[in-house]
Design a protein that fits this description.
4-stranded antiparallel β-sheet, 256 residues, elongated, alpha+beta, 45% helix, 12% strand, 4 strands
Length: 256
């Protein structure tokens, strides 16, 4: 999985120039929003000293920023907006995110929002009850070991911010991927998996609010597409990787 690059640009802008500075970045941001190399961005103002601003831009990679965006047709227009403030920059650097990341306690994890371990146990119980009776997926999951649903419940719980039960008892992401290698899953099977797990989520009483379900479905789509990829005869097993952690509005990590 390839980490994104975070660019920080720190400015010192006088109070007299603050309004025009904000207006210029508002116009410049239009070009960032259109750039395929830009993941997200924000401009923040210091509360203790109003002259200090920080622009945070997440790029798909440093190379994509320097050799992609900066050589694109959008860059000259972007630069024209912020050029008057280049002399006010105190720092402009790229940073690689570390594994230290997460959400504060003020925002519940998807695991907590779902209802904890019991919710994911209900989910996998309902899902595999449907699978064994489904014409498309029953052959894929034939002869499942009795503990399979429990292991998948641990996986879901850890992915959505719960305790590391899967990592502690089964292994990391590589262990899960290994179960799909060479199995040749089809797009029809993947789509059926997605449909049934959503039906199971309804049956298990998982939250139905748009925010939770959009995050839940985003992971399901990402995970099942990855499973199809690694099930192909030409796929190469990834290196040892931790279980992915999925949060609110999170963009999936890219495959290495």
């Amino acid at each position: 999985m390839t980490a994104h690059t975070v660019e920080y640009i720190r400015y010192r802008i006088s109070e007299q120039r603050s309004a025009e500075f904000l207006a210029a970045w508002t116009r410049a941001a239009v070009h960032l929003a259109e750039a395929p190399q830009c993941v997200d961005y924000e401009l923040a103002r210091c509360e203790e000293d109003f002259e200090h601003y920080v622009v945070r831009i997440v790029w798909t990679s440093t190379e994509d920023h320097l050799e992609g965006f900066r050589t694109s047709e959008s860059f000259p227009d972007f630069l024209a907006e912020i050029r008057p403030y280049i002399g006010a920059i105190d720092e402009m650097r790229h940073y690689t995110p570390t594994t230290v990341r997460g959400a504060g306690s003020a925002l519940p994890t998807l695991y907590e929002w779902a209802g904890g371990a019991e919710a994911f146990s209900r989910l996998t119980e309902a899902f595999y009850a449907k699978v064994v009776e489904d014409d498309v997926l029953a052959p894929v999951f034939a002869d499942l070991p009795p503990e399979h649903a429990e292991h998948v419940a641990l996986w879901f719980a850890e992915v959505f911010g719960g305790p590391p039960g899967y990592s502690g008892t089964q292994g990391g992401h590589g262990h899960m991927v290994a179960k799909h290698m060479g199995r040749g899953f089809t797009e029809t099977q993947r789509r059926r998996w997605v449909d049934l797990v959503q039906d199971a989520a309804d049956e298990a009483g998982l939250p139905t609010d748009a925010e939770f379900r959009s995050a839940f479905l985003a992971y399901v789509e990402w995970g099942t597409r990855l499973a199809v990829h690694f099930s192909s005869a030409t796929a190469t097993a990834p290196g040892e990787q931790p279980v992915p952690r999925w949060g609110w509005g999170m963009a999936p990590p890219r495959r290495a």
